[in-house]
Design goal:
Keywords: ANK repeat, Repeat
Shape: globular
Number of domains: 2
Structural class: mainly alpha
Helix content: 40-55%
Strand content: under 5%
Number of helices: 9
Radius of gyration: 16 Å
Oligomer: single chain
Pfam family, one: Ank_2
Number of strands: 0
CATH topology of the largest domain: Serine Threonine Protein Phosphatase 5, Tetratricopeptide repeat
InterPro entries: Ankyrin_rpt, Ankyrin_rpt-contain_sf
Length: 150
């Protein structure tokens, strides 16, 4: 990924000309997924689409949330990324962070008003997903901020 990121910066390619790969990944999606904040900032500065979706509908914010990259999440939100974006199975950034046990991301998303009662395609909430995946700290936090236990 470092070579990938270095290539982008050294070539000064415009983000609008960067194509998706076979899986629908854009440079911004991959940089967000791996927590490369400097590359994310650069790509946004040259016009990368902060709402780009891969083939399963995941956005850069969903990937950063799932993988625990709080600074990337905060930056994407600061430039207007949709905190309620929906990907595969209708997962939001909060649902995906809850599924992966990313407590700090969950706390941040709740603090900026993410919908803690949003449901997946299967009708599951962040609380149910965290519970199913035995992320007890996330479960306790969601209950403490009033997530519906029923």
């Amino acid at each position: 990924m470092e070579i990938f990121g270095s290539h982008i910066i050294s070539s000064k390619a415009t983000a609008k000309k960067m194509k998706k790969n076979y899986y629908g990944f854009t440079p911004l999606i991959k940089s967000s997924e791996y927590g490369h904040l400097d590359v994310v900032k650069y790509l946004i500065s040259v016009g990368a689409n902060k709402e780009a979706k891969d083939n399963i509908g995941y956005t850069p914010l969903i990937y950063a949330s799932a993988n625990g990259y709080l600074e990337v999440v905060k930056y994407l939100i600061s430039v207007g990324a949709n905190k309620e974006a929906r990907g595969m199975f209708e997962y939001t950034p909060l649902i995906k962070a809850s599924k992966e046990g990313q407590l700090e991301i969950v706390k941040y998303l709740i603090s900026i008003g993410a919908n803690k009662e949003a449901k997946t395609y299967f009708g599951e909430t962040s609380l149910q997903i965290a519970s199913d995946n035995v992320h007890n700290e996330v479960v306790e936090y969601l209950i403490s901020v009033g997530a519906n236990k029923n």
